[in-house]
Specification:
Layout: E1 6-9, H1 15-27, E2 32-35, H2 45-53, E3 59-62, E4 65-66, H3 72-85, E5 90-95, H4 101-104, H5 112-127, E6 132-135, E7 140-144, E8 160-164, H6 167-176, E9 179-182, H7 190-204, E10 215-222, H8 226-243, H9 245-251, H10 255-264, H11 271-278, H12 283-289, E11 291-293, H13 295-307, E12 312-317, H14 322-329
Parallel strand pairs: 1-2, 1-12, 2-3, 3-5, 4-5, 5-8, 8-9, 10-11, 10-12
Antiparallel strand pairs: 6-7
Helix pairs in contact: 3-5, 5-6, 6-7, 8-10, 8-11, 8-12
Length: 333
Amino acid sequence: MSHRVALYLQDKHDLRESINYVQYAEQKGFEAVWQAESRLVRDAIVPMAAYAATSERIKVGSGVINNWTRNAAVIAATFLTLDDLAPNRILLGIGAWWDPLASKVGIQRRKPLQAMREVVTVVRRLLNMERVTFHGEFVHLTDVELDVVHGRREPRHVPIYIGATGPKMLELAGEIADGVLLNYLVSPKYNEMAMERIQAGLKKSGRSLDEFDRPQLVVCSLDKDRKKALDNARKLVTQYLGQQPHIMKASGVPQELLDEINRVLTWPATEEQIERAMELVPDDIVQMITASGTPEECRAKVREYIAAGATCPVLYPLGESVYEMIEAFGSDE
């Protein structure tokens, strides 16, 4: 495919194996790798450092850290450090996290828009090597700067992407961020609403949609055996139907199906519950919100997301061969 393309990695693969995938994606012309951080499992920063240290050109992003568990100054220092490792190749993706996980670890996600605005504002100023005094509702800094004694003191080029799903966060991204990282398990039709909200935010900052990057996570379950590909994706779709219904609602999944799934799944769900719930999820729901099937079908679905406003598909491989998926979307440089 001739368009931009990126890779998305979670915790399914051994970390050393993931490094090999990133190196292969770089060979095949992928522009970026985004490392997930959502559940309490693999953190984003350690893999990002590993990818940055073992590659030459590919950009490395967080997809996404949250704005609650790391102090804004620590976020800035962390991404300065990553930029030391791979200058001008680091992308900061940041999101508002989700419940019930946040509440289970003692975080009240109140006023998420205000909290995000404050963190993004302060992190950008710190990475711009400003001395910052800021007293908001969530972020408090007094006469703070990134205290670089040895090394580059010039402002760092670390674009900030807000991981947004809901209309208000999408609008905020358009207003204050360098880009938006659009979510996965949404339909291309969802993107119509997303583009409207992003443009409303961009209007506030005096920018156009053409100036604003819009990479989008896309679940890609690719296999020559179409049924196998669909079944691989069905498991993830089922888990999200039960555990992250806010994403599913944004996708246009019927409330009746969400209710049915919730009667079967608890959180965290057992393997047996997931298997039972998978039987409730029809093929058309799987295909509506993922790129699943043969390589040709996956490429066609990805083109739908691009036509609906995504600037760069960020492919989350579910199939057994990640290399096969990279080959299907990559090019020899």
